TrEMBL record:
Keyword Signal: yes
Keywords associated with the record: Copper, Metal-binding, Signal
Biological source species: Immersiella caudata
Protein name (record): Tyrosinase copper-binding domain-containing protein
Pfam families in alphabetical order: Tyrosinase
InterPro entries hit by this protein: Di-copper_centre_dom_sf, Tyrosinase/Hemocyanin, Tyrosinase_Cu-bd
Biased composition (Low complexity): 288-307
Amino acid sequence: MLLTNLLATLAVFASAVTAAVATPHHRRDSSKKCKPDKPKNQRKAWHTLSNKEKKAYIDAELCLMSKPATLGLPGATNRFEELQSIHQASGAIIHNVGGFLPYHRYYLYAHEKLLQDECGYKGMQPWWDETRDAGHYSTSVVLDPVTGFGGDGSGPNGCITTGPFASFVNNIGPGYWFGPNCINRYVNDSVSVMAGQAYIDFCRQKQTFAEFWPCFERCPHRSGHGAIGGKLLDAVASPGDPLFYLHHAWLDKLWWEWQELNLGVRLTEIGGVNVSPPRGTPPPPGSVSPNAPEVAPAPSAFPPSDSLNPDLASPYQKPAGDPGNITTLNHVLNMGGIIPNATIAGVMDIRGSGLLCYEYA
Ligand SMILES: [Cu+2]
């Protein structure tokens, strides 16, 4: 519930924002033929990668972290933090809204593209098969100190001390703050139960996007954020833990699998609000699993409450492209210059008819 409440709090601030910003439309490079059946376009599960493939991905992430920032985005000192900065700066309008899934789909693509274009990464964005690890994240291969992302945090701030990112100094967060901080984690196996198949099936049987997205954003979205805790549970600075991208790739895969159940409708089906209702407003009927456990992360895993102050003057906190508060296919996905902005219409299909071309293996 804490994460939900946190996001709802952010939505209160966002509700003051209504202005729209004109943004260019991104066109696909037609010189590149999309062949999603080619292995090079396959996003694979982390546990199926060879150690060499795992190392290539982690090395590319470390490369992004070592490249100086170029775009002047708030707080960012390197390319990895520029992506994180955009998520933080847009925090109030990309969660608890109809654009939640498309935004994060395009955001993952931006990350994948940076790894490939700037750090020579030859692979695709891997995903974390969290269902496989449901109830026992603490023993997941993603947390391996040698071949993975390092393990649980320890000490007063829960900083991670093992793995390739143990010494990474992150300058974004907690919350809307900036300043040097570590990647911290408070791994909680009981929260990770929410990644289980029963929770996924509960949302998967929703018939409309309007019912699907809030169900999905609650569980299984909360599983990874809540069960890893710390940086990853930070509503706006969470992309500071590289596990963010594996968690959201899994969610993107699950959304695509739901779309695939009825592509004729679900390649264009969008909805929801651009600015979510104030905190305390009950969720839509049927959107919450009756069996959903309460999320109870360690209190220190949470950013201080006075860090929850989005910059409302920021263009990134203003929804754009829709005629009103209902999310449409024209809704703009603003990537702050990291990659060109897109509309939701451009990311509904991952098979090459729009901007994206990949498949999940
Ligand atoms: Cu997010």
